[in-house]
Amino acid sequence: xxxxxRYLSELLDGGLVWVGIFGVNKPRDEAxxxxxxxxxxxxxxxxxxxxxxxKLIEKFGxxxxxxxxxxxxxxxxxxxxxxxxxxxxxxxxxxxxxxxxWEAGKGFFLYTGRGPxxxxxxxxxxxxxxxxxxxxxxxVNVYIQLTDDEKFLEEEKGLxxxxxxxxxxxNALDIAAVGFDPDKTFIFQDTEYIRNxxxxxxxxxxxxxxxxxxxxxxxxxxxxxxxxFYPAIQVVPSLFEKKRxxxxxxxxxxxxxxxxxxxxxxxxxxxxxxxxxxxLPPLTGPVGKMSASQPESAIYLHEDEKSVRKKxxxxxxxxxxxxxxxxxxxxxxxxxxxxxxxxxFFEPDDVKIKKIEEDYRSGKLLTGELKLILxxxxxxxxxxxxxxxxxxxxxxxxxxxxxxxxxxxxxKIHE
Length: 415
Prior knowledge:
Layout: H1 2-13, H2 30-33, E1 41-42, E2 47-48, H3 53-60, E3 63-64, H4 67-77, H5 82-85, E4 89-93, H6 95-103, E5 108-114, H7 122-138, E6 142-146, H8 148-153, H9 161-176, E7 185-189, H10 190-206, H11 210-217, H12 225-235, E8 244-250, H13 256-263, E9 273-277, H14 305-313, H15 323-329, H16 337-346, H17 350-362, H18 367-402, H19 404-410
Parallel strand pairs: 5-6, 5-8, 6-7, 8-9
Antiparallel strand pairs: 1-2, 3-4, 4-9
């Protein structure tokens, strides 16, 4: 308890407003926060409301990762990550076929990427850690696309090409800091690698008409022609090998790969498979997802200790408004952002997370104490990440140009 009061004092000195024993208790009505329980929106550009993932699976036509599929992954990989056992990655397309290919000795490869429009936050980096886990367990190639061209073409972003190239470099350092196998990983920037991809991009583009991309991506008559061509470029990396491609991504990105799945076989390739994650809830509450346009909703990979402490202390909580009520009624971990962040990523030990949940539900653990647990784990993660990021400056050329896979890719023209 003393640590909580001492921490409160430090935050108050820093200029924060009314603070309770459980953290910052802004006058937020839980009913208001949950008002979107029945209504939610999930598209590649917008996530609003409290997402019902069962309904989303039905809406998108994907499949749940069930116990049988988890057991197949465990057998193939030797173990499971908590990102799977806790159903953070919960949905898929053709993951069963990826495992069929693996068991038959055909293998597969991984494809993911990043749109470099600004600094990366914790929500951005989690799928890369899962992708690394897959690479570590299966020993497969990973292709990571930096879409500096797409982010330049998105006119609402207002970025110059020089700015998206700069962010491609900065984001690549964060991605390289994850620790992928440098000889089995190719990080490529579209404006640099386009010569090698363009022949295959043309073949893909010829299969797609404008009404199709307009229906999938919401383009209109004001959309620039670069954006209408771009989906062809994004499909190409899923065709880099004559094997099945597995794409780890948040479920809002699933529509991007529906076009690929419709045309791949006609070009002599496999339909891409995908494994989808849920959204790490924003610090502001259990609805929507973190957004670069709302800095208070996220913790960025470059943030300093003072900023991290303040943001987590102000995060939406599932605690009661008074100490007496919390001891009596306990907290609600389902809507508590600090607990959800621990559950999603920062406390992989199942025994420890269960104890934290039980203590919070019983009222033994206060919200302020829960936030302090998360704070220390986030700070440790960021310290280690930032140190690896510095080292990545000396390694980035290996991932992009000089590693075994990178060299082979630069020698190849995709037809």
